[in-house]
Amino acid sequence: MRRALFISALIALLQGCATQQPYTFMLADFQRAEILPYDSPPQVIYRIDDHRFVTLEKYRDCNHGITYYNDTKAGIREELGRAGIENFQGRLINADPTGRNIVIPSAGPPEIACSDRGCTTSLIYSTDGGRTFAGVSYMNSFHPFQDSSDYTIIATPDKLFVVQSVSGDLRVRQFPLAPGIDLDRPYPLGFHSDSGWDSKKKLLPSGPLRSPSGQERFTCDASIKPTNPDAPLTRN
Known about the structure:
- This protein is mainly beta.
- The chain has one domain.
- 12% of the residues lie in helices and 33% in strands.
- It is built from three helices and twelve strands, in the order H-H-E-E-E-E-E-E-E-E-H-E-E-E-E.
- The longest helix is centred in the first third of the chain and has 18 residues, at 2-19.
- The radius of gyration is 22 Å and the shape is globular.
- It starts with a helix and ends in a 39-residue tail after the last strand.
- The model is unreliable at 4-14 (pLDDT under 50).
């Protein structure tokens, strides 16, 4: 009888210890969760101008949330994804005064695990003022969070520029931006892409390029946190 009581008490103790184990956050659970439960307030992490901006919402921290593109004048609110946009560490310049062309790059969170071929990292672009977005890869890396800091992404009235800083030189790739062009497919007649080293081939437009707001980097106030960072994540 005493042996049975001892075993029962031991099982209860072990179960109690198991329930007291610290919560372990898993990126896979976060990505697959049906609804993010975090009660954090929205933050504007990138602003193009007074009515166009990117918000981070339902975030556990500055690297794990949902991003949205917002245009309050046009009534646009477009979900962009989870744990991607907010992790870009480089410079972003949306310099199309017409407002038609918009580009928003992403990266991976600091703890992301890439395969032996690295992580393919994308940016999204719009040629209709943010009503629709398409994607194209701009980087392959084993450490996308850190390596994204080497990039400057620029949108102009007719071009997308992907600029990578490499050992003091700039590797520049330019792509056409126009309605109906899919950067992942062959271009229509008259459109082409180009690339080269800045020290040998000048591909960037002359003169300063800037977003209307002047902002060039994503910013997030890490001191703002949800009250429930360890809330359970329910998968789809």
